[in-house]
Amino acid sequence: MKAFRYVSYLLFLLGLSFNASAKNSGSESSNDNIKDIVVKDMNGKEVKLSDYKGKVLLIVNVASKCGYTPQYTGLETIYNKYKDKGFEILAFPCNDFGGQEPGTNEEIKEFCSTKYDVTFKLFDKVKVLGDERSPLYSRLINNNVTENGDIKWNFEKFLIGKEGNVVSRFRSKIKPESDELTAAIEKELAK
What are the helix (H) ranges across the chain? Predict the structure, then answer.
């Protein structure tokens, strides 16, 4: 019995050592990196986030009936300002907060294009809370770089560097065109 415990303990230590080595090796599946994740666009087509390598991304959970919905204007402003420099916005509609995004993908696209002239990429509606949380949002809220923990409301923003690493997190109240956010975008674009 002692021998079994000893072997189990050694295997446990080896597992810890292996996990620490993998975490420090910069592997693609690091919890700070999103490039191994696949999502769906508004038309149900799979999109590999690795396809955005070399681009700076702003990932946002959005809703059409939220007090922060006017941030679509600011998002479009910064998208137009930086898109030719390698910047993309990936917007993920979400109905987790107060039922503020009840529409279908078609209704969301229509709303975004007619009300806010959105031209950045919209994706399939996702869950950002609970057991059904999308793998992307699990990674975004559990990394070694930004504040960890659940999304608090719609229009929370995550800045992703050119290699797919999570760089910064901005709560809903931070406007897209704020100095804080645009300075962070410019810093990443300059790398």
Answer: 2-24, 71-82, 105-116, 135-141, 179-190
**In tens digits, what is the pLDDT along the chain, a chain of 191 residues?**
555 454 444 444 444 433 333 333 343 446 889 999 999 999 999 999 999 999 999 999 999 999 999 999 999 999 999 999 999 999 999 999 999 999 999 999 999 999 999 999 999 999 999 999 999 999 999 998 998 999 999 999 999 999 999 999 999 999 999 999 999 999 999 99
Q: Pick the catalytic residue: 66, 112, 159, 167?
A: 66
User: Which sequence spans correspond to the domains of the chain?
Assistant: 1-29, 31-190
Superfamily covering domain 31-190: Glutaredoxin (3.40.30.10)
Could you tell me if 46 and 38 are in contact, meaning their C-beta atoms sit under 8 angstroms apart?
yes
Residue 94 CB-density burial (10 A; 0-12 exposed, 13-18 middle, 19+ buried): buried
Report the interhelical angle of 105-116 vs 71-82 (nearest 10°). Answer: 80
The answer to whether 94 is a known catalytic residue is no
